[in-house]
Amino acid sequence: MRFAKGHGTGNDFVILPDPDGVLPLTPAFVAALCDRRRGIGADGVLRVVRSAAHPDAEASSAAAEWFMDYWNSDGSQSEMCGNGVRVYARYLAEAGLVAPEGTFNLVTRAGVVPVTMGEEITAGMPVPRVYVQSEAGTNGAVFTGTAVDVGNPHLVCPVDEATLERLDLTAAPAIDPLIFPAGVNVEFAAVGNPPAGADLYRRMRVYERGSGETQSCGSGVCAVAAVALHHAGLESGVVVVDVPGGRLTVTSSPAECLLRGPAVIVAHGDVDAQAIRQLAPLHS
User: Fold this and answer.
1) Which residues are catalytic?
2) Range of the domain at 92
3) Which of 63, 79, 107, 183 could be disulfide-bonded to 209 (CB atoms 3.0-4.6 Å)?
4) Is 152 annotated as a binding-site member?
5) What is the DSSP letter of 87?
């Protein structure tokens, strides 16, 4: 089975070209692929499939040819992944499936996303919706945060720099299941001085549902930017967010949310699908 490997600010993905939607993916198979010791290793899987060939996307096939079928590393599916969108777009361009420049649309489970190609890639994300206060518990402490919908759920918890550094995110933070029945990505964000051209700056770590702590989360960066602007009393602005894997820039207004950052394809190869299937029972 052919595959590629790519990442956006350290958030890494196994990319499976499957334009006709014939690969028999299962949660256990995906989890085995993402196993960092026995499989290829990744935060998630991006299946490259035409919208018309996938039941989750065929209704949007007139708006965009390609559907980003995104799976977390534990085999669960997710609505949106901002880094995944950019890596997926970079793969399409390098594979000659879209033009290397200009703008085109992708279908995601959170809707149709416009993508603009360049040295860095800009994705038009769902406009974040800030909606309620909640809490996350970790390291024996409880942190108050703001819930944000970016096509998928987030909880943004402000912390200081020292707390951000010492957080142990090897286990999922405790959250309110009544507010987040399908789980939630939890972001911890510290304030800093904005660089030139930015209105606000945050440094962020994240625990992603279905993947654990990752080097970056694009939709999480958008959530952090939305909360930063909300707390500053701003409707629009440019927010720079540093994550362990690099830097992302969000340009936000009531009408749109643009996420800009790098995306790199680092490898192409073949994986022994039968060996992965034999490993899959360990992840069932």
Assistant:
1) 81, 217
2) 2-121+263-283
3) 183
4) yes
5) H
208 known member of a binding site = yes
Contact 263, 87 (CB under 8 A): yes
**Would you say 51 is a known binding-site residue?**
no
Spatial CB neighbours of 209, under 8 Å, sequence gap ≥ 6: 72, 76, 78, 172, 182, 183, 184, 185
Q: For residues 149 and 133, state if they share a domain.
A: yes
On whether both 27 and 48 belong to a single domain, the answer is yes
Over the stretch 104-161, which tens digit does the pLDDT of each residue have?
999 999 999 999 999 999 999 999 999 999 999 998 999 999 999 999 999 999 999 9
Residue 234 contacts residue 262 (beta carbons within 8 Å): no
Question: What's the structural domain count of the chain?
Answer: 2
Question: What number is the average pLDDT over the span 223-246?
Answer: 98
User: pTM for this one?
Assistant: 0.94
Query: Looking at the structure, do residues 115 and 170 belong to the same domain, yes or no?
Result: no
| Contact (CB, 8 A) for 198 and 239 | yes
> Is residue 72 part of an annotated ligand binding site?
yes
- Residue 151 marked in a binding site: no
The token pair that represents 232 in the structure block:
């500053």
Report yes or no: 42 and 32 within 8 Å, Cβ to Cβ.
Answer: no
What confidence score (pLDDT) does residue 281 get? 84
Instruction: Decide: 68 and 85 in contact? Cβ < 8 Å.
Output: yes
pLDDT (0 to 100) of residue 139? 87
Residues 52-85 pLDDT 10s? 999 999 999 999 999 999 999 999 999 999 999 9
| 205 labeled part of a ligand binding site | no
Same domain, 154 and 204: yes
Could you tell me if 140 and 96 lie in one domain?
A: no
Contacts of 196 (CB under 8 A, 6+ apart): none
246 and 135 inside one domain: yes
